[in-house]
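Backbones bend. Shown next:

***
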Amino acid sequence: MTTELLRIAGLNAWYGESHILHGVDLTVNQGEVVTLLGRNGAGRTTTMRAIVGLTGSRTGSIQVAGQETIKLAPHRIARLGVGYCPEERGIFASLSAEENLMLPPVVAPGGMSVDDIYAMFPNLKERANSPGTRLSGGEQQMLAVARILRTGARLLLLDEISEGLAPVIVQKLAEMILTLKAKGYTIVLVEQNFRFAAPLADRFYIMEHGRIVRQFKQAELKQNMGMLQEYLGV
């Protein structure tokens, strides 16, 4: 039996007068890794931001574990166990790596301890006292994800976490996602790096012009490569 953790139906979203999402429908089951694919400007990041209430306005339905959230404030959505890691990472330069890690509040029970996080990210333990500006891009990305894991979030929204990073770091992030999946986390990825996302996801949604245009499962990946070339140029 699969348990639906996230259900989006008829989602429209705006920034000011700009209408970005046009009736998005998607579901994510508990323990799944789902990837949103599409070209820049397709609406993938806006979908993530809409889930956590960070767009200008939203209509439609977004249910987290069966609870309607479309009218909830972002801090109340977070307390349902939703963690968002934006593309810009948001590492505070004036704080050490460990101070950055401890900054977000606990929003739900069951978050990872600092020791658990350091076991998963040994680089962060080594750099615990280093200022945020001294961390490499890969270390900053690990820290951005680690902050969410401490809060107790179980639905992780990860936006372009592999962008601009060396292949060895990208491989470590892939291993991290597989480890988190094995621990029962549910993950939604926005990724431009198809080679990174392809082996990790259980299911794929393709977005174009603020709409979901195709979806398919991991087992159907090979037969959909022609279609992916058409939509993504991969």
Summary: DSSP finds nine helices and ten strands in the chain. Residues 4-232 form a domain with the Rossmann fold fold (CATH 3.40.50.300). The chain has a mean pLDDT of 92. The chain has one domain: 4-232.
